[in-house]
Structure formats: C-alpha cells, structure tokens
Amino acid sequence: xxxxxxxxxxxxxSLSATTGIxxxxxxxxxxxxxxxxxxxxxxxxxxxxxxxxxHNVSIFGxxxxxxxxxxxxxxxxxxxxxxAIDLGVNYIDTAALYGREDSGxxxxxxxxxxGAVMKHRRDEVFLATKSHDYTYDGTMRLFEDSLRRxxxxxxxLYQHHYVGNFGTLDDxxxxxxxxxxxxxxxxxxxxxxxxxxxxxxxxxxxxxxxYPYDCxxxxxxxxxxxxxxxxxxxxxxxVATEKNAGVIAMKVAHRGRMFRPDLTIRQLLPYTMSxxxxxxIMGISAKEYLDENVRIASSFKKLNESEMAEIRRLAQx
Length: 317
Fold this sequence. Notes:
By secondary structure, the chain is an alpha/beta fold. It has helices at residues 7-12, 14-21, 27-38, 74-86, 109-121, 136-150, 169-173, 178-187, 201-210, 233-242, 265-273, 287-298, 305-316, and strands at residues 47-49, 56-58, 60-66, 91-93, 100-101, 104-105, 126-131, 157-163, 194-198, 215-219, 246-250, 279-284.
C-alpha cells in the first residue's frame, strides 16, 4: 500500500483490533475476519472468469504502483512481483504513466520493473497496461514503448487510461483515435483484449453502451473515495454483466487513507470483492502486506448486504 500509511502498525494491532471490531460489526463478520487472519498465505488462490476474455484470473491481482513503480526499489519490486506469482496471483496491471521517486513522476518505471520478471515468467500471468494518450499516433508510440519495457511481444489487455481525465469518450469516437489504434493492434494479434478505466460509473456505463469493451477497470471502495457518480454503480454492474465485460476493481483503500484500528484491509478488501468483479488489484509496498492480502483472498467468502452496509458506514463516518 501507499508508503504514507503505516500498515505495520495495523498488522501489529491486528489481534487486538479484531476484538474492537466485534463491538461494531456483526458477529458473522467478526468470525470471517478472524478466519482471514488465521488462513495460511499458501492457500489456493480462487480464480474467476474475466468476462468474455476466455481467461480465469486470480480474485486478487497485483497493481503496478507503490513499490513496484519505484526505480530506486527495483530489487524489492522484482521480489514482490515474483512472490505474487508464486502465491497464485496471475493478473498484473500497470500503466505507461506509472513510476515515482522522491523527485516526482518517472513514467515507465513500473513497466520496467514488471518487465524484468516478465522476461522469465510471461506465460504465467494475464498482463495489462494502459495508454493515457487518446490519439492514434500517440497510442501507437506508447504501445511500442510499453512492449519494450515489459519485455513481451503482446499484451493480454490494453486499456484507455482514466476516461474523464486524460481523455473523453468524444475523443475516442473521433477518427483516427486511440480506439482505432487498439482495434488495429488487436487485428494484428499483439493485444488480445481492449479495456477502459476510470473513476466514474456513469462514464464507464456510457462507455460500455458505446463500444464492446472486453474489460473495465473501476474505482470501488467502501468509503466511496475517488468514486464519481456512485448513483450509477448498480446500473454499471447490470450492463457489465449483460455485456459480459470483465470488471476489475481498484483503489480498495484509497492509498491507505481509510485505514484505522477499526477498519483495516480485512474489511475493505472483502467488501470490494463482494461486488460482481472478476479481480481486485492493489499496489503492494512490502511482501508481508502481499501475504496478508493473499491470505484474505484465499479464504474469501462473499459478504451479505448487512455486513457490507456496516463496513460502508464505518468507512464513510
């Protein structure tokens, strides 16, 4: 998770926090969180179909931010990526823009670190990255750069990065646009599936009605942080299900900003996973956090409406 959040403090307090959680959460949810705490990290990672892609992906996926995007922590990033694959994580998501050090953004750094592992383990993962350029020529250039950095000759999923900020649906409709670049690349067989990402369920709903995207990456968390137009969320999921688009969830804890003693990843990750999503991605700052998240995912059981409502109440209070 984000380095600004002291996850180690929450791990150390985990057993005592479970007692405190029991004061506010239902006894059923308390039992589930206790089970997640004790499940071995080596448990079998459940997999689900990723929409119409034909792939089954791990319900927990590795995001390309946090440690993975830092050039100065390359060895640690590579260790995290390898460890994730060893634990059964077969979905990895990144972007051409991801990359950060103390002095600011370093585009491409995340892809470079992931590429160091893909050079040897490409056939073990479903690999996704993104283009933040909504023009045809710009996307073609970014695509070639991404392939080189990722040390692969194809992508399982190529996505428009952040509709509503970097670009709009109107930009994608104009010819030639990034959408048409994606189509050409898919015809050539160098990308297998086309996706779109964003924070607005209204815009992503419109995107699904506008174009047969294979996958959609959406912000989804109990606190509704960085989530726009949440009143459209149910309609978004209904249309995604109808069109058999694979849904990927992100920003589970909004870079750790929602963590506190009575609200930890043991509640926030299962909350997001209880929606009709194929996988939920998170950036990882250290191996022990990866172990914890995989442990939760390996013993995940869908929460009921009352359990989700209680977590939502805590997250938004």
